[in-house]
Predict the 3D structure of the following.
Amino acid sequence: MVETIGIWIAAILTLGIFSFLYKDNPFYKFCESLFVGVSAGYWFATTFWQVMMPKLVDNLAAGRWIYIIGGIFGILMLLRLFPKIGWISRWSLALVVGTTAGLYFTRYLVSNGMVQTENTIMPIFVTGNLPQTIGNLVIVVGTFCGLVYFFFSKEHKGTFGGFAKVGIWFIMVSFGASFGYTVMSRMSLLLGRLDYLFGTWLGLIK
Amino acid sequence: MRPRISTQTSNKTYALILSILILSFLLIPIPVLAQQDTLPPSPPTEVKAEDTPNDAGGSITIIWKKSADDIGVVRDDNKVKGYEILRSTRTDGEYELLGKTTAGAESYFDSHARNNIDYFYKIRALGLVSLSESLPSQPVKAKAQWVDWSRKYTFLLALILALSIVYFINQSKTGKELFIRKIAGLEAVTDAVGRATEMGRKIFYIPGISDMDNMQTIAGVTILGQVAKITAEYEAKLEVPTSRSLVMVSCRETIKEAYSNAGRPDLFNENMVYYLTDDQFGYTAAVDGLFVREKPAAIFFQGQFYAESLILAETGNYVGAIQIAGTGQPAQLPFFVAACDYTLIGEELFAASAYLSRDPKLLGSLKGQDVGKFIFLFFILVGSILLAFGVYDLRVFLR
C-alpha cells in the first residue's frame, strides 16, 4: 500500500515537471517549489551528517584538536549574520579560494599540461605504417593547432591565424562527436523515466 | 577345435594383469611427483633493501633476484608459487611476515616502516608444499627527504611560469600596454547589459553548480565582478541564483565591491544574490522557472556546469534572452555552443576576467600562462619531429 502511494506520488510529480514542456503552470510551480524545498532540506541534513559530524565533531571528540582550526574558520563564516563584524567572514573565503588556487596550480600543471603534452609527443611518421602515421598526425596537428587557438598574446592573423582556425575546427568536430554521444545518454535517461511511468506506474510495459 | 579355458584360470589371469596395471600406475609416477613437490625451490638471492627515494619517509623498497626455479609467470607448472616478504629489526631475530607477492616478482614496497629504525629483510620462495628462504638483507632505515627530485622538471616549469607571471604583472603595473587578442563573447557583454537596460528586464548570472573550491567557479565569480560593474553603471537589474551557500556569499561580496567601485553602492542589494538548493536538478528546475517567469533580457552562464547546461540554455533561448556562456567542461561546451549566442571555450573563461577588467595582476597572469603554452607548443612540435627521426625523446622532461 505504502509502495503504491509512493509510486503514484513519484509519477504525478514526474508529470508535473514534464508539464513545463507545454508551458509554465501552477502544477509545475508546485512541483518546482516542492523539489527545491525538499532537496535543500535533504542537502542540509546530508551535509550535517556526512561533513560536519565525521570531519569535525568526530575528530574533535577523538582528541584531534588540529581540526579546531577548520571549525573556527567555519564559525567565522557565520559572523555574516552580524553586520558589524561580518567582514571577518572574508578570512574564511580567502582561505578557501587561496588554498584552492595553490593546490590546483601544480595539479593542473602536471595533469593538463605536462602529461597531456607527453602523450601528444609521438612520431609524425611511422615507416611502413600509413594508418599509424595518419593517426599520429591528426593527434599532433589537432593538439598543436588547438593550443594555438588558446594563445591570447597574438592576434589570430596570417599563418598563426591559420593554425588557430584549424584548431577551432578540430575543437568543433570534437564538440559534434561529444554532442551526439551525450544526447544518446540523455535519451536513455528519458527512456528510463518513461519506463517508470508506463511500466512501474501504469503497468502497460511488462 | 579351440582349447577350452576354465573360468577359474581366466579370472586369475585377469586379476594378475589388473594388479600389474594398478601397481604400474601407483609405483612409477609417485617418485617423480614426490621429487617435484617436496623438494624446496631454490631460494631468492641478492636481497637488497633501500630507503624509497623522494618520499616523506615511512617506506623501504626491497629488490631481489627471483628463485632459479621461478619461470617468471603464475602457472601450474611453475615450481615457485609466490614469495613472502619477512622483516625483522635484528638480523638473527624473529622475522615477521610483511606481505606476499606473486611468482616472477622481484621487488616489494614496504609502506609500513618507521623512520630511523634498522630493518632486515628476507624473501621466502614458496613451493607447493615446501619453501626456501634467502639470506637477510643489509640493514636499512626509512628516512624522509626534503626534496622530491623526481619532480624537478615540474618544479622548473612551475618556476618559469611563476617568474613569467611576476614579470608581466610588473610590466603591466609600470604602464606597459599588454596585448590580449579579441574574445568575441566578451565584446558582447556590454551589448547584453545595454539591451537589458533598454528593455527594462533583468540580467541573470548563473555561476555554475560547483563550490568555491573549483577554479571554474572562482573564474565565474571573478567575471561576475566585471559584469556587475557594468550593470551598476547602466543601472540594470542583476539577479544571481546560486546552488552553494559559499558561492552565494562570494557573489554578494563581489557584487558589493563592484557596485562600490562603480560609484553606485546605493544600488546594491543583498537579495540580488540568493541560494536555491544544492541539488543539481532542483536548482535547474527553479532556475528554469525563474527564466520563464522573469523573461530576462540577458543570461550569463559562467562556471562549472554538468547535465543541466542544455536544460538551462534551452530555456534561456526559448525566452529570447541574449546568452553568453563559458565553461571548462568539455562535455557541456557543445550544448552551450548550440544554444547560446556566445560561448567562452575552456581557457577563454579564465582569460575573460583579465580581458574585461584590464587589471594588471590578471593581465600579467594571462601573459605568464601564454609563456607556459608556448613551452608546451615547442615540446609538441619539436618533440614529435625529433621522435620521428629517432634523434631524441623530449618526453623525459615531462615525466
About this structure: Chain B touches chain A through 67 residues (CB under 8 Å). The CA atoms of residues 186 and 326 of chain B lie 10 Å apart. The two ends of chain B are 93 Å apart (CA to CA).
